[in-house]
UniProtKB/TrEMBL annotation:
GO terms for cellular component: plasma membrane. The lineage of its organism: Eukaryota, Metazoa, Chordata, Craniata, Vertebrata. This is Olfactory receptor. It is found in: Cell membrane. Belongs to the G-protein coupled receptor 1 family.
Amino acid sequence: MRIPNHTTVTEFILVGFSNHPNLQVPLFLIFLGVYTITLTGNMLIILVTSVDPALHSPMYFFLRNLASLEIGFTLVIVPKMLVNLLVENKIISFAGCASQLYFFFFFGTAECCLLTAMAYDRYVAICNPLRYPDIMNRRVCFQLAVVSWFSGFPVATVQMMWIFSLPFCGPNQVNHFFCDAPPMLELACADTSLFEIEALTATVLFVMFPFLLILVSYMRIITTILRMPSEEGRRKAFSTCSSHLVVVTLFYGTASSTYFRPKSSYSPDTKKLISLSYTVITPMLNPIIYSLRNKEVKGALRRTLGRKLFLRKM
């Protein structure tokens, strides 16, 4: 795929957190710890939902896909950020910057759609439990997962091609820790209003429309739960979707504040903190939320780890 290039800029400098030189090493250690927890937690989710028969259900099939997306999402951003915290040369090539932006949009869009599929799964499970096995069969689950993953391709392609067809003829310092759309637009020496309209349209279609579907699903779910005669039934039904609701709130709450206002009035440090929340912190919290709030996952983790320890002792 060829990127239209009307620019004299051949590389960019990721400013990151270089305006806080005394915090470079502490930040490296903190983010390294967070990244290690993210990889370990999400790989454990993939492992236990794959090997434990008790977790071979649609909900955990989607959770396994979410964990895979989170690993890819952080892999695009965090390793480069960690390296830049330790070196003075924070250069990223033009193609490297375009690739990072492309895969950031790919994984972000895919996660939005996958969270919608997970909401639909909970809606069917709670609002139509008798038909749940028929509606959410293996073929339907596979199709929803494939659509979620492939939804990222058109969005990522259009966004990346549009941004990198803009002329970059002046400063090349990206005031961020990765190549994100808003700071890249600030470097373009051309009118970006048309792109901002396109970006807002893409945000509505691929971020807010899925969010509205999730919202409608949970309105129906809550209505159904409140109508349940048994308090134990209400508690159990709510516990099956509370983890997903927390994850949706964390992801959409922070991401929407950035992409509904590409050139917002937030300070650069505030923008970086907001971006950290959904690119670094949320992927770490997701496996923790799903494991701590879910007895089935905790039980599967104990069985899987116990089995490995038992085999090691033999």
